[in-house]
Design a protein that fits this description.
- The chain is mostly helical.
- The two termini are 27 Å apart.
- Helix 4 crosses helix 8 and helix 5 packs antiparallel against helix 6.
- The chain has one domain: YcfC-like (Orthogonal Bundle), CATH 1.10.3890.10.
- The chain contains ten helices and no strands.
- This is High frequency lysogenization protein HflD homolog.
- Keywords: Cell membrane, Cytoplasm, Membrane.
């Protein structure tokens, strides 16, 4: 038997919570880039994102990302690049900031938020029946994104291998990933995250990342 991953209680610090939520945004951005270029994806990172998107009523903050910061490791590594400690992938950063841009449009559009909530309510039923990462669930998440966020004039253009991007289930997987990024973007905003803070409060973000180890 494998030992279950211990639950790490979420930090009380607003900066730490913002860092974890932002890690979810950039984890989604990283996986979109990986899918578009290789067609493959890190399983743990992928499952963390999809489960967070399907579960719209988590028991706690830490439950959103599966109870352990390591589930957001890909996103945390991208944040390290954002604060200047590692080489940044400009494509991943562009996707991440684009996700935050469409998140801001979504959160002020009550009708679209309601529509998206209705989609996710139905998808939860699917997930209970098939399993969270079943392709039927992924297809429904992709459809939810396409019918809501994808209708904004500001759209996220994904670059990659054209043959991969057109392959079976790939558009749905990419859209599901983008939707998960928006979900974490909304969480980041709820925790007090703002774009200007990424420019003027990088030291606070650095300290938050340091405390996560």
């Amino acid at each position: 038997m494998t030992t279950p991953t211990p639950i790490h209680r979420a930090p009380d610090s607003p900066a730490l919570r913002q860092a974890l939520a932002l890690a979810g945004v950039f984890q989604a951005a990283s996986l979109v880039d990986e899918l578009a270029r290789t067609g493959q994806v890190d399983t743990r990172a992928w499952e963390t994102l999809i489960e967070a998107t399907v579960d719209t009523n988590p028991a706690s903050f830490e439950a959103i990302y599966g109870g352990h910061p390591n589930n957001l490791r890909r996103g945390l590594e991208t944040l390290e690049a954002l604060v200047g400690r590692k080489q940044a992938n400009p494509v991943v950063l562009r996707y991440g900031f684009s996700i935050l841009l469409v998140m801001n449009k979504l959160r002020t559009n009550d009708a679209m938020m309601d529509t998206l909530g209705q989609h996710l309510g139905r998808i939860q039923g699917q997930a209970e029946h098939f399993g969270t990462t079943h392709e039927n669930v992924i297809a429904s998440l992709g459809e939810a994104y396409q019918e809501t966020i994808s209708t904004f004039k500001t759209r996220i253009v994904v670059q990659g291998d054209p043959s991969l991007l057109q392959s079976r289930m790939m558009p749905e997987r990419v859209r599901a990933c983008l939707l998960s990024g928006v979900r974490f973007g909304l969480l980041w905003h709820q925790q007090g995250g703002r774009r200007w803070k990424l420019v003027f409060q990088r030291k606070a973000l650095r300290r938050a990342l340091d405390s996560l180890g």
